[in-house]
Structures are given as structure tokens and as C-alpha cells.
Write a structure and sequence with these properties.
12 strands; single chain; 7 helices; alpha+beta; disordered C terminus; 6-stranded mixed sheet; about 290 residues; 4-stranded antiparallel sheet
Length: about 290
């Protein structure tokens, strides 16, 4: 994925890791289900939760990890509105994520919720050094290990422990934190202010405030939908959209899936290291 900041002439390119992409997977499903359960004339208004759609303006070109958009299908109030934006940081720094979110806000004042998810490692990742045990063993093997052959046993007592294979530590997660900002009145979200809610998925699940904030954010989405539908079909009552949201997130399940993604990320790093280190040697290459 990439982000381009025209005013700063800055380009950020990164490859999402499994642990990075997993952060929004279950959330996207829950929110999509909630939107589809709302009763209204869908031929007039399209809502969409997406993970690979671009945002483009004079201030930024980027592909956020998740976004919720609303688009009327009529000529009346036809502008697409960006209502939610979610950014997850693993290899990206907090500073880079905040800069991206701030630039998006410059051209999308309509945003009612912004969520930042930070995945922090205990120490900066380093690939195996030349002539290390992992390097020598891999060279002798002559091919890329499959995930099953690479990953150590993923038992309940080892979830989120350091992933060590071939005597090398590939990943060790310290924390997974969530920060939510919700729009207040007609004022643009200020991400430099304290977040509306903060929670942790790991090392301890403490997500009640985040759940409540996401429900408030969904309430703001439905209020925007109601106002837009009132403009399109003024003779229809859309007050039922204002019923308080009851989004329920299974954070325990999300944590379980994240633990699997940690092991997958370790294998991702191993494969990436193998291709960079041994490409062009006499080792036989196998593409996973």
C-alpha cells in the first residue's frame, strides 16, 4: 500500500503484514452486518465498508485499512461522504499514522469517527545475520519452509509468546491498543486532542470504552443517513434510523485470530528474508 502527501512531497510505501490486516477483519464484518440490518430504501442510498479503496484529494492519496462511506444514488445530495476511517499501525510509526489521518481530515470534515490501532513490538525486528544458525540452516535446506514446517506449535499457553524458529526470534508483540475519536457537533475531529476512548486488546482485554465509542460512532452514521434520506424523500419518515446502536464485538475471538496472525507474520518475515537473502544462489527456490 502507499500514501502520498503532495504538499510535503512525501511518499510512504509499505507491505501489510497478516497481523496488520487482521485488526480490521472482524470489525468490518460486524459493522457491515449492522448496516445491512437497517431498513430503508437501498435504491436511494449506498453504504459501504471497504478495506482497499483509495482516498484522493489535493492533500493526500492513501488507501486506509478500513473506511465506511455513504453515497446517494440520486442527483440530490449525490456526494460520497467518508464517515469512518480506520488506520492500523504495525511497521508504520504513530507519527506517520497521525499525519495521514490529519491530512485526510483536511478534505473530509464530514468524518464522524476515526480509529487508530497500534500494534507494538517489544523490540525492533531484525532478520537473521549472515552465518547465524538460522542463516546456515536455511542455506543447507535450500528451499522455503512451508508455514507448517516453519511455525512452532501454537498452543494455548504460547499465544502471543515470542515466535522463535530456527533459533531466531521473528516477532514478539508487546501491546495492541485502540484509540477512537468521535466528531462533536459540527466541529471537525481534532486528533491532536485526547481520544474519545482508549482500549487494549493485548496484553489485557479492556475494550468496553472502545465498544461504547464505536456504537456512538454508528449512531452518528445513522443520523447522517437519516438526514440525507430526508433530503431525498422528504415525505418519508426516517426516524427509526435514530434507534441507538447495539454493536457487539467478540474481542476474545478477535484476540484469538490475532494470535494466529502473529505466527503468520513471523512466516511472512521469514519468506521475505529468504527471498532477499538467497535469491540468485544455488539454493532451490519455492514460492509460497
Amino acid at each position: 500500500r502507499m500514501s502520498y502527501f503532495p504538499h510535503r512531497m512525501a511518499l510512504i510505501i509499505y507491505s501489510p503484514h497478516p497481523v496488520h490486516e487482521q485488526t480490521t477483519s472482524e470489525m468490518s464484518f460486524t459493522i457491515s452486518q449492522a448496516l445491512h440490518s437497517i431498513l430503508y430504501n437501498r435504491t436511494l442510498l449506498k453504504t459501504c465498508v471497504s478495506s482497499n479503496s483509495r482516498i484522493y484529494s489535493e492533500d493526500i492519496f492513501t488507501i486506509p485499512d478500513m473506511q465506511l462511506t455513504m453515497t446517494p444514488t440520486t442527483a440530490v445530495a449525490a456526494e460520497t461522504q467518508l464517515l469512518w476511517m480506520v488506520e492500523s499501525g504495525f511497521t508504520q510509526s504513530r507519527t506517520a499514522i497521525m499525519a495521514k489521518m490529519g491530512d485526510v481530515l483536511l478534505s473530509h470534515e464530514e468524518l464522524v469517527l476515526m480509529l487508530m490501532i497500534l500494534i507494538k513490538e517489544k523490540k525492533k525486528y531484525a532478520s537473521p545475520a549472515a552465518e547465524s544458525d538460522a542463516w546456515n540452516q536455511t542455506r543447507e535446506e535450500g528451499s522455503v519452509r512451508t508455514y507448517s514446517a516453519f511455525a512452532p506449535a501454537c498452543t494455548a499457553d504460547k499465544l502471543f509468546r515470542p515466535v522463535v524458529a530456527m533459533e531466531h526470534e521473528w516477532i514478539d508483540i508487546e501491546s495492541i491498543e485502540y484509540f477512537v475519536w468521535i466528531k462533536s457537533g459540527d466541529q471537525r475531529i481534532d486528533i491532536n486532542a485526547d481520544p474519545t476512548a482508549h482500549g487494549t486488546l493485548f496484553p489485557n482485554i479492556n475494550m468496553d470504552d472502545v465498544t461504547n465509542a464505536l456504537n456512538r460512532g454508528m449512531d452518528r452514521v445513522k443520523a447522517t443517513m437519516s438526514r440525507t434520506l430526508d433530503t431525498i424523500e422528504s415525505d418519508v419518515d426516517h426516524q427509526h434510523l435514530l434507534t441507538p446502536s447495539t454493536l457487539a464485538f467478540n474481542w476474545e475471538l478477535d484476540l484469538s485470530f490475532m494470535s494466529v496472525a502473529v505466527y503468520q507474520t513471523a512466516h511472512f518475515r521469514y519468506c521475505d528474508w529468504y527471498r532477499r537473502q538467497f535469491s540468485g544462489t544455488k539454493c532451490r527456490r519455492v514460492d509460497n
